[in-house]
Amino acid sequence: MSRYLYDGTVEGLLSVAARMLAESSEPEQATLDERQNTLFEDGVFIETDAAAAEMFFSRLRQEAPDAAHTFYFFILAEKEGMETSLLRYLILALRHGNKVNGNLADAAVRDIITVARKAQRELHRFKGILRFEKLRDGAYLAKMEPDHNILQPLAGYFSSRLRAEDWFIYDVRRRTAARWHSGTLRLGTIEQFTAPALSEDELRIQALWQTFFRTIAIPDRKNFRLQKSNMPMKYWRYLTEKQEL
Asked: Is 0.85 topped by the overall pTM?
């Protein structure tokens, strides 16, 4: 079993996969770790080849689109320490196509799919719970702290549904933001963020919604355990109806 090292980037990982597939007789047996630049680090470092990485991913999308989809969501999950499993998954995907996702008996395949599905489920959840607040300048702002780095696909989703408005989505945890303005979507980082003032209309609407939420519930049928099961408390911080409860 050979141990390989890469620079920690997605392109670097795909470069290793391309190299293993082309040169190794048993690429699925290789191990992969991010290079730490220590004095006695053991392993063969594979330099990033952007062209090879792009060709590998293009081939993956063509021959195993379901696997490419899984790979995309796994990257969004930002799960560390699973490079070897991901390398094996990619090699098996190009050998067996979309059938690889059905091979849950393989530990590497199962682990990669499990992580990817968590990111995909969170993206789906935020499509429904993300709350936009109207600011004084007429734009809208939504703040979130997802477990996974889902800002880009989430912004893409809302760019096709809120085309007539100016809005921002701010990932508090990663200090990244997406802005939709005049039909253009931009993503970037924010070093310092100061919460802008809400419009008077927004404050009134929030107050009305909180009152409705408090009064519509039947006291004898409140079930906080069920609420937490359907909507984990980590998401409550940015839900308007939970601010005063």
From this structure: yes
